[in-house]
Amino acid sequence: MTGPYRTQLTGQLLPDGAPGGGRAFDLTAYVTDAASGADATVDVRTTIWLDGRPVRGTVHRIAGGYEAVVPVPDGATIGRQRIVVDVSGARGSGRLEIAPIEDGGPPAALLAITAVALAALVALAVVARRRRLPADEDPDDRA
Is residue 32 within 8 Å of 39, Cβ to Cβ? Predict the structure, then answer.
């Protein structure tokens, strides 16, 4: 919910979608009245925080929603953005914020299980090699 509105946001990274070329986010907000479910006519403003800096794109009304193409500088860390959508209209205003998903790396249990499995495989390989060596000897070579 974005205040008195229901907002659905979709987005995709365009490799050459920015004006003049370069990468860009294509964000589309679909806004409906929370009470009636009807499409809402509102003002929409989008801001993407890239590595701590705000970047805004011009919002255009499209069939069923509002679209902004926001340029992404080449040095930006993709996937670490905070997206803010401000909506204001006759019924009031609201804000939708989407924070980046923090990637803490693999869980410690996964690392421990992998280490144990690797150690077991090495031990099995050593045992199999030791068992194979006597079987590979030629019986005629024994004195």
Answer: yes
